[in-house]
Amino acid sequence: MMINNIDDKYLESTYQKHRKCKIIRGDKSECLENAERMTLGYTKAKIIVDNSDIKNDHVVLNVFSGAGGIVRLISLFNPKMLIALDMLNPGYKCSKNNWYYDTDNAFNSWIDDIYQFDSTIKITHPLFIQHDATEYNPAFKDAIDRIILDPPLGILTNDVFNISKVFAEEILIQSLNNAISYLKSDGFIICIMPFSWSNRVKQTFHYCYDILRLNGNKQDLIILKIMKQGGSILNPLYPDLFSRYAQHHTGKQNIGNELVELLKHNEKRENDIAIDIGAGNGEITNYLADIFYRVDAIERNIELTNAIREKNRNNINVVLCDILNYSSNEKYNLVLMSYLLDSYSDTTKTIEIMTNVNKLVANDGIVLGITYLHDCAWNKFSEIVCNDLNKHRIGGMKNVERRLSEACYKCHILKTVDSYIWGNTIEELFFNLSFFYKSKISTYLDNKEKYIKLLDKYASTLNDLFIINVKEAIFSIRKN
């Protein structure tokens, strides 16, 4: 992935800072020329920061800050505090672009300009190649909301410092070990590294997820998101992968039609209200809006909530929220959870969700769920792929029913719905299925030839399309 155009705001900021440091004595064309040469670096920095979800009450730690490219981008989010480790000293040569910071005064002025009024800056400078990142700082323990770790991979692995790649990898692991202890319980790390290192990092840090793989000039890089503990995590690729899957799956349409028939049966719902929890891009919400007075669509991914709003339905109210944080004074005649209960492996989380659902549903209201059944071609293919990827499967009717039973609820299948996921070619079908393996997306894509051969065994053709059959269930949930 490459960004073709350098963001104007970033370019202007870079130009002004470089002018103050006397790095650039010409006009903006010189800055633009330099910026274009640094396109991959800018792309990497922007992806990292955009996926860091930085709030203005956050304490952010940027490790290996270097020339300050990422620091400038972080500052646009105006965090409560930004701690920048290993900023280059004035007069210290930057390995990336061979620029020098001329004087202490120029350097300090440049740093001061970065931050807004309510931000605090703390800076350290590198004394040796291991950097501050490998030196544990107890003052940071359990105090940081976001950590960005963008190590100088080119410096660490080149011949100038005679540091082997093995030792460079050890530096990264030690830095990550420190960073994990610095995080608050709900914090996370965004880290970039050579793709060849990622398997070891994933084995060392259990809650580790791919964000994106980049094709660098000299080596493939990967950006990872590393959690301090497990639980809910939003893969930044989720909206794109989900959108691709949804556009090539007949299930939403088929389920929507079946739900309408099921809910309209012997009952008028002109004054009733419904809540669609985990609404996604709102396809099923749209069907509910045809028969309910109002539908509240609860979705925690901002890009998907925007997709719902684009439907321009006056009786759909979109709420950007996690269900565990949602409350309402109103009682709903219908609570719908489409694949929500598939997302959590432990019964404790199921109990938390159902406890909140019970507060939302009216006395005569109904609670419905949607999940897949295990006896279908897609599930058989997915089971083999997940075993191969070492990906634990927690969804499907059997798993959801078991966790509900352990939580003292019973479910009853009201309707089974046949659908299929399709592609114009078997390769396109392979890519359309990638949503289901988003936490292992790089490994899934790396094994394309292998999985296409497997897919060919379970897929069939329909009107020149390659399809794989899915069987889903609409089920009711009641307290025992």
Please provide a written account of the structure.
The strands form 2 sheets. Strands 8, 9, 10, 11, 12, 13, 14 and 15 form an 8-stranded mixed sheet that branches. This protein has a 7-stranded mixed sheet with strand order 3-2-1-4-5-7-6, with helices on both faces. 36% of the residues are buried. The chain has 480 residues and is an alpha/beta fold. The protein is built from 18 helices and 15 strands. The protein is globular and about 65 Å long. The N terminus is likely disordered. The chain folds into 2 domains: 220 residues, Rossmann fold (3-Layer(aba) Sandwich); 242 residues, Vaccinia Virus protein VP39 (Rossmann fold). α1 crosses α2, α3 packs parallel to α4 and α14 runs antiparallel to α18.
Topology:
Elements: H1 8-20, H2 28-37, H3 39-50, E1 59-63, H4 69-75, E2 81-84, H5 104-114, E3 120-123, E4 144-149, H6 153-157, H7 165-182, E5 183-194, H8 198-204, E6 208-215, E7 220-227, H9 238-247, H10 251-264, E8 273-277, H11 283-288, E9 294-299, H12 302-309, E10 316-320, E11 332-338, H13 347-360, E12 361-372, H14 377-388, H15 397-406, E13 409-423, H16 426-432, H17 441-446, H18 448-458, E14 460-462, E15 465-479
Parallel strand pairs: 1-2, 1-4, 2-3, 4-5, 8-9, 8-11, 9-10, 11-12
Antiparallel strand pairs: 5-7, 6-7, 12-15, 13-15, 14-15
Helix pairs in contact: 1-2, 3-4, 14-18
